[in-house]
Target: Sporulation-specific transcription factor SpoVIF
Amino acid sequence: MSNNQNGFFDKIEKKANVSKTDIFKVADSVKDANFKDEATVRKLVRQIAAMTGRQVTKDKEDKIVQAIVTNNMPLDFQSLTNMFKQK
Model:
């Protein structure tokens, strides 16, 4: 893994208090997931929220799920961060 990739995961570990190992476990569990399936996406959002100890309101969950299912997710890290911070 390159230094840039390590730096990226180090930032995630600090901000979300989630280990690199846990991140890779989640990534591995969804590598063949159907992101057009709302139930699958909801399960993933809830799993990540629980793993990070964050509360996700029903409204925010709906927005995240809709963005993923319709393939309307921002591609840069700052936009993703802002999306998750919205109330």
Q: What stands out?
A: The mean pLDDT is 80. The first helix runs from residue 3 to 16.
